[in-house]
Amino acid sequence: MIKLKKISVKLNSKIILHDINLDLKKQQYALLGKSGSGKTTLLNVINFLIKPISGKIYSSFVGEIKSNNDVCIHRSYTATIFQNINLIPRLNVLENVLVGKINRFSPFNFFLPNSRNEKEKALSCLEEVGLISKSLENVRSLSGGEKQRVAIARAIYKKPKLLLADEPVSNLDPKNTKLIMDLLKTLCVNKKICCIVALHNPDLAIKFSRNIIALKKGKIVLDKKSSINKKDIDKIYV
Ligand SMILES: Nc1ncnc2c1ncn2[C@@H]1O[C@H](COP(=O)(O)OP(=O)(O)OP(=O)(O)O)[C@@H](O)[C@H]1O
Ligand SMILES: [Mg+2]
Description:
Helix content is 35%, strand content 25%. It is of the alpha/beta class.
């Protein structure tokens, strides 16, 4: 699905990611690492918001991603749920989901009224996340867990093949944490999406997937396809 070969990233003359090699299939991956280890930076490399100083990225849609056009195609298959959610406060729930339609194939549709078909598609995404009854509410009136579910609906509206979620449960209580993690897992398994979720909690990571990737100071210290043990956890956090 996506392959990173010897990717390094420098920001403000500091090396943030060192020689990252990853080969990700159509599966779920939990991305662990201490605060500042480079999780967000890595997700931003994968969705091409940050340009590495060296290395290559291959995707199954375009092969090696080399041109702006390749990046556009890659992005059209990729959806991101950002660390700070990024909903648009003046829009209602349904309108926020419809923001997901901006992509390479319909960039100008954004300025046209939403068609009935588009609205129906957005409503079915809201149904999938259990929020259809709130579709006309302003997003400002939602709880943290509900906002996160709108962000998930917006992401799946794009019908992504690759879903990146950056700490989607960092501000949620245990009940909503479970709800969001179960929802992400079910959606990704059912839709056969490659999903990478950055998390702080190893227990959540283990429940989410057998595939665990971990970063420490910008380097991969774990890339396992079987459940992790205490020794692995020490490698990440000690
Ligand atoms: N734009 C930037 N310019 C300079 N340094 C940056 C920039 N963005 C991130 N960094 C640095 O890169 C390192 C990794 O940051 P990153 O946000 O990727 O970590 P993280 O693992 O996502 O942390 P957290 O768990 O707190 O979200 C940090 O030391 C951070 O200070
Ligand atoms: Mg982060």
